[in-house]
């Protein structure tokens, strides 16, 4: 079992994963009502206003799936996305009405609504931070998509298959570009150098065994030799438990990482408990400003994006009006 994980940079992945198999989720707001321009002002009436019944009734708001910081996500849009997901199931050979298909739809209904909410949160954050995508950028990107899909007629046919129009696609492309710009801003803020420690560890299954190994270390036994003999971390055991250099935020077990950064070269920890088991950690070297490797940079960028998204959710006022499976 390894303490390190592979990078999986999430560039608002929920938005772009859907782009590979169909339109990106979109929740367009209704067009604003514009006041008439240069309309002559009617003279004030001296007659009492008694014909209230002749006044037009306000148009009721369409049914909602959710409301995000006051911005609606319409039920019709949510149901359209569910329908598009059913199409994707059929394309994978899964009948939407089959037990397997129904279970899949139930499982992903909440995920689909969360994607729609996350897109609204992203666009709201872009407005707040002054991130702007021009119509020319959207047009250029749409022309690329049309070319990649075999021309305009083939592109329109694909949209029709998904129940979308060219206008829908244009808005969805704009949302993608905004998401890309916001993500770029976040990952560019991740520093390229950071404090690192070079550490190794021994992982065992029980506290008793960890304490026994700790006693041997305290009696001057060699750390690497004990790691090779006893550690359950197969990815580092043959190398004496060596984890290499790493900055903060990389290890799967944060308890081990904290212990490593609390030690000086040559020191080893007491028994450290994590979800993986029981560890003893030793620091070999420290470097106050070491370049971050590409693999670790991907992990840190991923974390930065995830933390940013989680922050949007935490600060948002979200109302849900449909029942979805958790």
Polypeptide structure, described:
This protein is of the alpha+beta class and 326 residues long. It folds into two domains: 10-21 and 62-192 and 292-326, Porin chaperone SurA, peptide-binding domain (Triger factor/SurA peptide-binding fold, Orthogonal Bundle); 194-289, Chitinase A, domain 3, CATH 3.10.50. The protein has helices spanning 13-19, 75-91, 99-128, 135-148, 152-161, 166-188, 207-218, 223-230, 254-261, 294-315; strands spanning 64-68, 71-74, 193-204, 242-246, 272-274, 277-291, 318-320. It is elongated. The chain starts with 12 loop residues before the first helix and ends in a 6-residue tail after the last strand. 26% of the residues are buried. The model is unreliable at 4-52 (pLDDT under 50).
- The overall pLDDT, averaged over residues, is 84
Question: Please, how many helices?
Answer: 10
Give the DSSP E fraction (strand runs of 2 or more residues).
5-15%
Q: H/E element string?
A: HEEHHHHHEHHEHEEHE
The CATH superfamily label of the largest domain reads: Porin chaperone SurA, peptide-binding domain
Q: Helix fraction?
A: 40-55%
Distance between the termini: 30 Å
How big is the Rg? 28 Å
Largest sheet: 4 strands, antiparallel
At the first level of CATH, the class of the largest domain is Mainly Alpha
Q: CATH topology of the largest domain, which one? A: Triger factor/SurA peptide-binding fold
Overall structural domain count? 2
Using the 3D structure, state the CATH architecture of the largest domain. Answer: Orthogonal Bundle
Number-wise, the strands total 7
Morphology call: elongated
Describe the strand arrangement of the main beta sheet, using strand numbers.
4-3-6-5
Structural class: alpha+beta
